[in-house]
């Protein structure tokens, strides 16, 4: 078996070949074909000639500067490539960044990769030396459920409420553990500031007595309801929402939206609740002293349905605090976190939150049960239907 050797060409031949390209305007392919050599070989000769020609015109300092510039350019190109690949990992915890750096392998120098990811090189090497942490199936399921519950709440569940939710699903977790879990998974509660607009009654409208005196805990369902109106801002303009809440379990039993804030708005909400629940005579309906609730038309409706009206005192917002808290959670925890381009979109989003609120949202006043869970537990004990 003979050893393969590369053909050697004299310098004069190389210079003539390069001259065809540099001086006579031949393309590399044409010159290579005429000399019966490969394109790649001629490319190398031309590049080497240009490099030698460039270096011969530079001083010692200029050559050193050129070498440094080439190094810097190469480093910047690598940093740019790493940035493109790493965009999804910024803002994540260091362990995730370390895993990404490890996946790069020997493609880029570790020092440059760590600099781009803004992590310590020594910390990365220390992580590499640590034994891998094996996540059990139970822990993985805990992480998945925590993220799912947090996302279902539209990012509104704090550590206390998330811990309650997880314990209801038979996860043995403390609030302290959930705080660490939320930090590890990057679950951060975000809220926005709400706006508040109120209406004033007409002086000619009658005001009902305050029958509650801030006693928001009736002994059973359909004994005391409360209602209020709120303004919801959309890309098309304002949308007005009226709700009716059964104070026993904090359940929303009726609601209605409209482009206009009129008496019809609150009447529709109340009638929806009345048809759904069919409360007994003597039901107390509590509200503020807004012009819609003090109007003759709405007072006549309550009288016709054998319901008693109750109204909070002037300037005492806490007289209807339970309903105010509902509007606060509706806006802060839900509506303000997504764009609301149209009134129809807002209406559908309100419906989604009412469903979530009644079925999923836990209340400390209900013994950490949702409104519907609390009513169902009362039904089992009392036989109420």
From TrEMBL:
SUPFAM superfamilies recorded: Homeodomain-like, Ribonuclease H-like
InterPro entries: Homeodomain-like_sf, HTH-like_dom, Integrase_cat-core, RNaseH-like_sf, RNaseH_sf, Transpos_IS3, Transposase_8, Transposase_IS3/IS150/IS904
Gene3D superfamilies hit by this protein: Homeodomain-like (1.10.10.60), Ribonuclease H-like superfamily/Ribonuclease H (3.30.420.10)
Molecular function GO terms recorded: DNA binding; transposase activity
Coiled coil: 59-86
UniProt entry keywords in alphabetical sequence: Coiled coil
Name of the protein described by the UniProt record: IS3 family transposase
Organism per entry: Marinomonas profundi
């Amino acid at each position: 078996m003979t050893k393969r050797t590369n053909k050697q060409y004299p310098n004069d031949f190389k210079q003539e070949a390069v001259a065809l390209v540099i001086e006579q305007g031949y393309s590399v392919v044409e010159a290579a074909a005429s000399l019966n050599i490969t394109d790649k070989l001629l490319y190398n000769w031309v590049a080497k000639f240009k490099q030698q020609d460039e270096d011969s015109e530079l001083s010692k300092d200029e050559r050193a500067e050129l070498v440094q510039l080439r190094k810097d350019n190469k480093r910047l190109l690598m940093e740019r490539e790493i940035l493109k690949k790493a965009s999804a990992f910024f803002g994540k915890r260091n362990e995730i960044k370390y895993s990404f750096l490890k996946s790069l392998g020997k493609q880029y120098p570790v020092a440059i990769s760590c600099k781009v990811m803004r992590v310590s090189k020594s910390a990365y090497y220390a992580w590499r030396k640590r034994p891998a942490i094996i996540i059990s199936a139970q822990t993985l399921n805990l992480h998945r459920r925590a993220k799912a519950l947090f996302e279902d709440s539209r990012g509104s569940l704090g550590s206390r409420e998330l811990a309650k939710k997880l314990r209801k699903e038979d996860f043995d977790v403390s609030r302290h553990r959930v705080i660490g879990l939320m930090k590890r998974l990057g679950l951060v509660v975000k809220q926005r500031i709400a706006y508040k607009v109120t209406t004033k009654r007409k002086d000619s409208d009658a005001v009902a007595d305050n029958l509650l005196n801030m006693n928001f805990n009736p002994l059973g369902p359909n004994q005391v309801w409360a209602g209020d109106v709120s303004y919801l801002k959309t890309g098309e303009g304002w949308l007005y929402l009226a709700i009716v809440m059964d104070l026993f379990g904090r359940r929303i039993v009726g609601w209605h939206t409209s482009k206009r804030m009129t008496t019809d708005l609150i009447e529709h909400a109340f009638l929806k609740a009345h048809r759904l629940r069919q409360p007994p005579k003597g039901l107390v309906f509590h509200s503020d002293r807004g012009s819609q609730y003090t109007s003759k038309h709405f007072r006549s409706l309550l009288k016709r349905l054998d319901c008693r009206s109750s109204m909070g005192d002037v300037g005492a917002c806490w007289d209807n605090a339970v309903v105010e808290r509902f509007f606060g959670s509706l806006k802060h925890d839900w509506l303000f976190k997504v764009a609301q381009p149209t009134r129809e979109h807002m209406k559908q989003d309100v419906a989604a939150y009412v469903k979530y609120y009644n079925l999923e949202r836990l209340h400390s006043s209900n013994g950490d049960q949702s409104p519907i869970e609390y009513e169902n537990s009362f039904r089992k004990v009392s036989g109420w239907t």
